[in-house]
Amino acid sequence: MVQMAIERIEKDGVVTLDEERKAAMVNNLLVSIVSERAIQPVVNTGTVY
């Protein structure tokens, strides 16, 4: 499921992910899928780079 989501995001040109950001996205999606609680969106207002 996560792999398909990442592939779709890249295919649709939504965003280009480097390997580090792809790993973070995979982690976030997996946590969202297996979490027992409702997820809450986080708005990123900047970058660490």
Query: Tell me, what's the shape?
Result: globular
Distance between the termini: 29 Å
For the biggest sheet, the summary is: none
Order of helices and strands: HH
Low-confidence spans: pLDDT under 50, at least 5 residues?
none
Question: How large, in whole angstroms, is the Cα Rg?
Answer: 12 Å
Structural class: mainly alpha
Average pLDDT metric: 82
The number of helical segments is 2
The share of residues in extended strands comes to under 5%
Offer a concise description of the structure.
With 49 residues, this protein is an all-alpha fold. Helices cover 53% and strands 0% of the residues.
List keywords for this structure.
49 residues; mainly alpha
Task: Note down, in words, how this protein is organized.
- The protein contains two helices and no strands.
- It has helices at residues 2-11, 19-34.
- It starts with a helix and ends in a 15-residue tail after the last helix.
